[in-house]
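Entry for the shared binder. Reason: the reviewer on the internal report wants the predicted structure included alongside the sequence.
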Amino acid sequence: MAPAMSKLRAEAGLGALLRRALAQYLLLLRLYPVLTKAATSGFLSALGNFLAQMIEKKRKKENCSPNLDVNGPLRYAIYGFFFTGPLSHFFYLFMEHWIPSDVPLAGVKRLLLDRLIFAPAFLLFFFFIMNFLERKDMAAFSAKMRRGFWPALQMNWKVWTPLQFVNINYVPLQFRVLFANLVALFWYAYLASLGK
């Protein structure tokens, strides 16, 4: 009977810990929305790159400890913190202001704005910033764009379109960047695999 009680206490403790973490996150989100979204974006972007490297190593059946590119997660953390979090925060605010909910077909218009304008521009920006952070020249950027932009954009449209429809139309404004970051955890793993 004692192990069962111990397990219940541990589960209750974990639940309480998660509730406290959520309460703290909500407080930070209210007090420092851009900084909180930037930090979350940086952390989840780095984690996405780290997972991409682990998946790649497992796929190649390599030992996971050597040859880990520690600069990869750092680059993704920088990109997430300085670009993804803040740009996404202001883009969602802009969309709410420019296409209010009471406008006819607001959800469709927001989705089209996101998919046809923001997504290609953001992807181009991603490739450019990553090229800069990798200290590569413009010839490498051009080659990466020719090789990877169109396939990445097509995959972006396939993966993100239904998710962004849900995000833009049903997720509360303050949680849209977090929702996108959680999806981006896997998306960045995909984009990192394109860089190889």
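Summary line for the report: The mean pLDDT is 88.
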